[in-house]
Design a protein that fits this description.
Blueprint: E1 2-4, H1 8-13, E2 21-25, E3 31-35, E4 40-50, E5 53-64, H2 70-85, H3 107-120, H4 125-138, H5 152-166, H6 168-186, H7 223-231, H8 236-248, H9 252-256, E6 263-264, E7 269-272, E8 283-286, H10 289-305, E9 314-316, E10 323-325, H11 341-352, H12 357-364, H13 371-374, H14 382-399
Parallel strand pairs: 1-2
Antiparallel strand pairs: 2-3, 3-4, 4-5, 6-7, 7-8, 9-10
């Protein structure tokens, strides 16, 4: 098939010479002039791809040279080629979309796919549970709605509704989850090969509420009162849980879910597996002497109250009656003084005790600052980190006026 830069003068001079001839236009790739016995016609030929797979090579007749001039044929050819690039067969433009096309997904299917992505990336069960909860609690009425029907205005309206009903923080979390799922799970699976492309992310234009960094912390002069209030708690397991939370700085979700098999008291560590951590990677929490004492007290209490339980801080479900891990971090009698504020308190007390910012980050399993810090092995520093933890615990207990 000859390739030639077509001109209107050349086309007018062409004649049929005993066999059909196809001439490709060098200016518009895919435009073909077919010269046969009865007429000269314009055709377009290109490969049709769908879902990143070659479906077939499409050839479509646009009309004769009597119906379309060269310039008109080039314009029309570019329109049809663009159609083919989007996965639409110009010979059958009304063909139904593939059921697997992202544009045909429901929001529930997107949520399922995003959950699978999170699991492949080894995100913690807490992260996955929170993500699933956003759908179950706040977007359930959209579960069966196709993505192509979700609009910007719908997202804005839902955001305002959530703000009024559950507050700005929860509204931010739900829309952020939708935005991320669309951007990182739906969009990468949709491209020009889809018969109908997925519309732009409708949640991306929602302006979320500004979030101020939380500042709840147990101040040094409040620590004696804090320790006294824990002493008054009737449940010894909850008393130990809060005290270990203060001395360790563990995230509340990790603290409540601690399992006995993770304990390595001779090695002065709790070995938390990567699957439960907010950041990827296993975490060996260095244990000070006071932390070991709290853990031993919790083990003894657990053996009496919930014998055989695999958790360090078990409780009994009021619904099922089964023994399970504690799921409530806060204490009504200590508002603002339990849960995540204890993590901030640990960080504050560590710095006051003279522990470097870098080492205090390692104690809390925080992301370290520089690239050179990334090369540091916390496992190789374990003994030193135990010493740092001892400094933090000693300073906390001294400030809380607790007899060692």
């Amino acid at each position: 098939m000859a390739v030639q830069r077509l001109t209107q003068r050349l086309i007018d001079a062409l004649r049929y010479e005993g066999k059909t001839v196809f001439i490709r236009d060098s200016k518009v790739t895919g435009l073909i002039l077919a010269v046969n016995k009865n007429s000269m016609s314009w055709k377009v030929q290109a490969d049709l791809w769908q879902r990143r797979q070659l479906v077939k090579t499409v050839r479509h007749t646009m009309g004769t040279t009597q119906e379309l001039t060269l310039d008109a044929a080039r314009v029309r050819a570019q329109e049809i080629l663009a159609q083919i690039r989007r996965g639409i067969d110009p010979n059958n433009p009304d063909a139904p979309l593939s059921p697997g096309a992202v544009v045909n997904w429901t929001l529930g299917q997107l949520w399922d796919a995003r959950e699978q992505d999170l699991r492949r990336r080894d995100r913690s069960e807490r992260t996955i549970k929170d993500f699933r909860g956003y759908m179950d609690r706040h977007l359930d009425d959209w579960r069966e709605r196709p993505l192509r029907e979700i609009t910007n205005s719908m997202c804005h309206d839902r955001f305002e509704q959530l703000t009024d009903n559950v507050g700005p923080v929860a509204a931010n979390h739900v829309l952020a989850a939708l935005n991320t799922a669309w951007r990182r799970t739906a969009a990468p699976r949709s491209d020009h090969t889809d018969p109908v492309p997925l519309q732009p992310n409708p949640a991306a234009t929602v302006r979320r509420h500004p979030v101020r960094a939380r500042s709840d912390v147990v101040l040094p002069d409040e620590l004696p009162e804090w320790w006294r209030l824990t002493e008054e708690l009737p449940n010894p397991l909850r008393r130990c849980m809060h005290r270990l939370g203060l001395l360790s700085g563990l995230r509340p979700g990790n603290l409540m879910a601690l399992e006995r098999e993770w304990l390595d008291l001779p090695g002065r560590a709790i070995r938390l597996p990567a699957r439960v951590m907010k950041r990827r990677g296993d975490f060996s929490l260095p244990l000070s002497g006071p932390m070991v004492s709290v853990i031993e007290t919790a083990l003894a209490a657990g053996d009496i109250i919930y014998s055989g339980s695999p958790w360090l801080f078990p409780t009994r479900s009021t619904i099922s009656g089964r023994v399970t891990a504690t799921s409530v971090a806060r204490e009504r009698s200590m508002p603002g003084w339990t849960g995540h504020p204890l993590r901030r308190t640990h960080k504050t007390m560590a710095l006051v005790a003279g522990v470097s910012d870098f080492k205090s980050a390692l104690l809390l399993h925080h992301k370290v600052g520089t690239m050179s810090d990334v090369y540091v092995s916390p496992a190789a520093m374990h003994d030193d980190l135990v010493d740092q933890q001892e400094r933090v615990s000693a300073h906390i207990l001294e400030t809380a006026e607790v007899d060692a």
